[in-house]
């Protein structure tokens, strides 16, 4: 499934695509990833659903302009505009990592309705951010000027740490590639520097207003965001369900693709 569409929004170029037929399902990726993580799952679901993928501005195949904010607020505004462009009314939304906070803000602060929401190892509530993440926030300009080979090695090590089982070289290459080159390298550090936890605090204050079905999936070996965060998130969302996936890290897509696909199908079938 290719991102063959380009949606122009406030000077940005958002790469997106859709396929299949049936009820709409929209996938939201996280950082430092792209819609490529969700592509195999979207393809598998396209027989029964109309699946929608997009790269957030600053990520993947979308534009990476230095002057454009890439924080949670900007991404939520972009998501709401894209859903309007697609003409979707109450789609099912499945989100990973940063996409969790974006989808929650789009629903809670912008009033966009969903049929259901599945949250997979998400950034959603404070605190968040690894020591590396915080270091980058303090030195974005210095790191953006690193020699390309050192930068590539840092990004490879960082992304590899998101998987409990370890990533194959070709999969790791695909995840690292958007963050290399003259545009990708500074964009990698810029999206971390623009990270603002105040949006997570705002989300947390409003989670009690969620009235849609929510299921939370979490890898028991997530080294980026511990399971305790998932448990607290479930306690804050009325009626939310939580399922723990054994031996999966933050990149459940690669660590446990079959259990993840089973969870997605069962969740959507029950809606």
UniProtKB/TrEMBL annotation:
Any one Gene Ontology molecular-function term assigned to this protein's record: hydrolase activity
Highest taxon, organism lineage: Bacteria
SUPFAM superfamilies according to UniProt: alpha/beta-Hydrolases
Pfam families referenced in this protein's UniProt entry, alphabetically: Abhydrolase_6
Domain AB hydrolase-1: 25-259
UniProt keyword list: Hydrolase
Name this polypeptide is given: Alpha/beta hydrolase
């Amino acid at each position: 499934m290719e991102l063959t569409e380009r949606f122009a929004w406030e000077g940005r170029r958002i790469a997106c695509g859709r396929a299949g037929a049936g009820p709409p399902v929209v996938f939201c990726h996280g950082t430092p990833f792209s819609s490529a993580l969700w592509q195999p799952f979207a393809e598998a679901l396209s027989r029964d659903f109309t699946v929608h993928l997009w790269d957030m501005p600053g990520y993947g195949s979308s534009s990476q302009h230095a002057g454009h904010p890439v924080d949670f607020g900007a991404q939520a505004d972009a998501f709401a505009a894209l859903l309007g462009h697609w003409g979707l009314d109450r789609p099912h939304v499945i989100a990973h990592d940063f996409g969790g906070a974006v989808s929650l803000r789009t629903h809670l602060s912008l009033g966009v309705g969903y049929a259901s929401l599945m949250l997979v190892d998400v950034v959603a509530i404070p605190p968040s951010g690894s020591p590396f993440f915080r270091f980058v926030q303090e030195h974005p300009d210095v790191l953006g000027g690193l020699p390309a080979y050192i930068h590539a090695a840092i990004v490879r090590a960082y992304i590899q740490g998101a998987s409990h089982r370890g990533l194959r070289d070709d999969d790791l290459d695909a995840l690292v590639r958007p963050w290399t080159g003259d545009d990708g390298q500074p964009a990698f550090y810029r999206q971390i520097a623009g990270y603002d936890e105040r949006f997570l605090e705002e989300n947390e204050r409003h989670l009690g207003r969620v009235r849609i079905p929510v299921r939370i999936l979490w890898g028991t070996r997530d080294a980026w965001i511990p399971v305790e965060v998932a448990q607290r998130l479930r306690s804050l969302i009325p009626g939310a369900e939580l399922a723990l996936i054994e031996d999966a890290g933050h990149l459940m897509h690669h660590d446990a693709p079959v259990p993840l696909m089973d969870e997605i199908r069962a969740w959507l079938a029950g809606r």
